[in-house]
Amino acid sequence: MIDRETFSMTYDNFDKEVVVEIIDIFIAEYADRMAALRKALDERNFDGLNKHSHSLKGVVANFYDDTTHHLARQLEMKGKEEIFEGAEDIYRELKVAAESLLGELKELRTRYI
């Protein structure tokens, strides 16, 4: 869930077009990011898991969603430490949280149009 107060404090001073662009980039890249994570998990590719989780974590930080950020960090650490146990569960939770973030961003985007 987006910390709307922090989001507003950060982005209300930006041009609305910039905010929409930041949101649109996340929306456009979302499916590929999640597919890359899924593929890394399926292949037990720890380097890919680390890399793609780290990238998602960085992007999510822009939206002040602590839950999604925390789950991406956990998955990143699984990749870094080369531990597969529990990664599937974290991925499932991450997917739910990220999809919720996606929905929130689509709704929030309308505020800036």
Q: Describe it for me?
A:
The chain contains 5 helices and no strands. The protein has a single domain, classed as Four Helix Bundle (Hemerythrin (Met), subunit A), CATH 1.20.120.160. The mean pLDDT is 96. By secondary structure, it is mainly α. It is elongated and about 40 Å long. It has helices at residues 4-11, 16-42, 46-61, 66-81, 87-109.
Briefly summarize what is shown:
This protein is mostly helical and 113 residues long.
Short key terms for the protein model shown above:
mainly alpha, Four Helix Bundle (Hemerythrin (Met), subunit A), 80% helix, single chain, 113 residues, 5 helices
Work out the number of β strands. 0
Biggest pleated-sheet summary = none
Distance from N terminus to C terminus (CA atoms, Å) equals 21 Å
**Which stretches are poorly predicted, pLDDT < 50 over at least 5 residues?**
none
- Principal-axes geometry comes out as elongated
Strand content: under 5%
Q: Helical segment tally?
A: 5
Q: What is the SS-derived class?
A: mainly alpha
Q: Any idea what the CATH superfamily is called?
A: HPT domain
CATH class category label: Mainly Alpha
Q: Give, in order, the helices and strands.
A: HHHHH
* Average pLDDT score: 96
Helix proportion range: over 70%
Rg value: 14 Å
Q: What is the domain tally?
A: 1
Which fold name is given in CATH as the topology? Four Helix Bundle (Hemerythrin (Met), subunit A)
